[in-house]
Amino acid sequence: MSTILNTLATGLTVFSQPMVIVYMAVGVLFGMYGGAMPGISATMAISLMVSFTYNWEMGPALGMIIGCYVGAVYGGSRSAILLNVPGTPSALATTFDGYPLAMKGKAAKALGVTAIQSVIGGIIGSIFLIVAAPLITNFALMFAPRDYFLLAFMGIVLLCSMAGGSFFKGLFAGFLGILVGCIGMDSSTAVQRFTFGNIYLMSGISSVAIIIGTFGLSESLIQMRDFRQVTVRKQDVSRIIPTLKDAFGYMRITLESSLIGVFIGALPGTGGNIAALIAYERAKKSTKNPEVPFGEGAIEGLVAPESANNAAVGGAVVPMLTLGIPGDSATALILAALSAHGVVAGPLLMSDSSGVFGIIVMLVLLANIVLLPVSMTGIKIFAKIAEVPKEILLPAIIVLTFIGSYATRKNMMDVYFMVGFGLAGYFLKMLGFSTGPLVLGLILSSLLELNFRRAWTAARSDFATFFAQIFKSPLSVVLLIVTILIFASQFGLLKKLRRKKKENAA
User: Fold this and answer.
1) Can you point out the beta strands (E) in 272-345?
2) Buried b or exposed e, range 476-493, using 16+ CB within 10 angstroms
3) Measured over all CA atoms, what is the biggest interatomic distance in the chain, rounded to whole angstroms?
4) Are 265 and 138 in contact (CB under 8 A)?
5) How far is the C-alpha of 28 from the C-alpha of 50, rounded, in Å?
6) Could you read off the pLDDT of 116-141 as tens digits, one per residue?
7) Which of 79, 276, 425, 450 is 20 to 30 A removed from 95 (C-alpha atoms)?
8) pLDDT digits (tens, 9 = 90+) for 147-188
9) Global pTM value
10) What letter would DSSP give residue 206?
11) What is the DSSP string of 436-504?
12) Mean pLDDT to the nearest integer, 475-496
């Protein structure tokens, strides 16, 4: 313990290096605006930073890279609020209440709230990273492949239950997303699946192209059906700094969501998207009488996902540093950057006399502190986007969808897929289907498939053994029960049981 404290004390020297802070601010700014642009994900922004800082000294290089990571996670909320297009997958839940607020002329308020909550969630995640890294690591090691499978499946079911409309339509969309995620070459056997002999499908379909199409293009097409039905609201930009109530009046939700983000983020392969959905559902269930209903512009609906996905950053760093296992693609790039600077991540890193562990932890904390002033830049300008007449804004958004889908891999096939899924999303929405479960199914398809295969192999391809292993593990049982309860809640079974219990008690 004393060794770890000494290491953290060494990390405090970061605060005495002004240039590291400057480089970090630049990284946060770049990541924030990169995350706000559909098609420029956190992974792409970080990859640019890694290549740019390859020959730098470790301190400034890591400062800029980690700052870019933190900024990109927050930046995804801006396009989610203003355009109903999540800039990053973790901002998917932010669209539920962020976009309705923008439609009510409260885009500046929504942007300000997400900025403050992102900072608070990120700081809480950093603190837990400092004091509970070994504990969180041990928690992550408890998860078997079947638990990851159940967790991913629970995330899809959660979104189906929150998406509104028919639960079964949402579930259908979720499984459709999983099916689309299977297109390409099998990761284990290299066998082609659903490619129909087309070489362009062998590498799969870009998730970025699908996200941009199903959210950006389809929403634009829906609003273009009749401009007269689309109301342009005057945006109130007189106050971009949230009130004390909006900033700190939901601390219970902030703390709960941050804890969810830390623990979910510590699980390799999960990330902030599942954490944000679970936190949103928890806030929805625990808030009895919200001022505005969830899905119509509830502040609680912004607080929960934004504090969770930013806290997940601190959680994702834990397995990267302590086990050498990246939590997501972004931390995989950071791990590569550490390796380039001669740092070997693993259990011995915490006791390393060089203090690298403490430096990285403090950089994560400092990045979230720097995010506060940086996140306030450009809010008034961004908020005014929602005031642009739809006759001008919607064609501009459509042009950006083409640019964003092409910029990811510089492949015209991604543009064609984006258009195809944009049209599919348009018709799905017209028929009452939600596109959120489709996108999440796509994102989680590899996690579902990989861990189901591992669990199935461990069970020797036997159903009885597979389910026996689930019921032998308390963690697996809890995840299974939660998933069943979510299903049951959609059929009113829980209300019927409560009613029957009250009748019996009477």
Assistant:
1) none
2) beebbebbeebeeebeee
3) 74
4) no
5) 14
6) 888 888 888 888 777 766 666 666 66
7) 450
8) 888 877 877 777 676 555 677 787 888 888 888 888 888 777
9) 0.71
10) -
11) HHHHHHHHHHHHHHHHHHHHHHHTTT-HHHHHHHHHH-HHHHHHHHHHHHHHHHHTTHHHHHHHHHHHH
12) 75
Q: What distance in Å separates the CA atoms of residue 438 and residue 214, rounded to the nearest whole number? A: 9
pLDDT bracket for residue 234 (50, 70, 90) = low
| Strands 184-185 and 192-193, bridge-based pairing | antiparallel
The residues near 221 (Cβ < 8 Å, ≥ 6 apart) are 422, 423, 426
How do residues 207-233 score in pLDDT, each as one tens digit? 778 877 887 788 778 877 765 555 555
> What gap in Å lies between CA 246 and CA 185, rounded to an integer?
48
CA atoms within 13 A on the CB side of 106: 17
Choose from 87-91, 102-106, 320-324, 385-389 the range with maximum mean pLDDT. 102-106
pLDDT tens digits, residue range 372-407?
Answer: 888 887 776 666 665 666 677 778 778 878 887 787
Distance CA 376, CA 322 (A): 34
Question: Which tokens is 311 given?
Answer: 């806290």
Name residue, tokens 């990053």: 88
DSSP string, 223-287: HHT-GGG---PPP--S--SPPHHHHHTTHHHHHHHHHHHHHHHTSTTT-HHHHHHHHHHHHHHH-
Q: Are 336 and 101 in contact (CB under 8 A)?
A: no
